[in-house]
Amino acid sequence: QVQLVESGGGLVEAGGSLRLSCAASGRTFRRYAMGWFRQAPGKERDVVAGISWSGGGTYYADSVKGRFTISRDNAKNTVYLQMNSLKPEDTAVYYCAATYTQLDVTPSRYDYWGQGTQVTVSS
Questions:
Q1: Cα–Cα nearest to 101, from 64, 61, 50
Q2: Count of CB atoms within 10 A of residue 109's CB?
Q3: pLDDT single digits (tens) 60-118
Q4: Among 7, 17, 85, 100, whose Cα sits 20 to 30 Å from the Cα of 68?
Q5: 55 neighbors 69 (Cβ within 8 angstroms)
Q6: Residue 22 is inside which H or E element, if any?
Q7: Which among 99, 103, 90 has a CA at the least distance from the CA of 46?
């Protein structure tokens, strides 16, 4: 069982930066690939970025490549999402999720989810 708690969301102007954190409980955190997803009002939940259990593999949605960076610290049971050059279209609720399988972009493949943190980017 893994419990996930996101933090770091907020209101930022376009061009600004935010760093999201996702703290995980449980001693098996290092066995899980992790993902960040986002969901805007009226839209489906989409993958933003993912990272393998070791941190050696990462994935980014085309819309965030070059602006967002995912990382993890297995000693701290935490995964991060550094978001730079934010745009109004990045506005959404951001969720972190854990999967016991390999890195995946499909939300249904993830076993555990956090409660989400709101990110709002003003123009």
A1: 50
A2: 15
A3: 999 999 999 999 999 999 999 999 999 999 999 999 999 998 888 899 999 999 999 99
A4: 100
A5: no
A6: strand 18-24
A7: 90
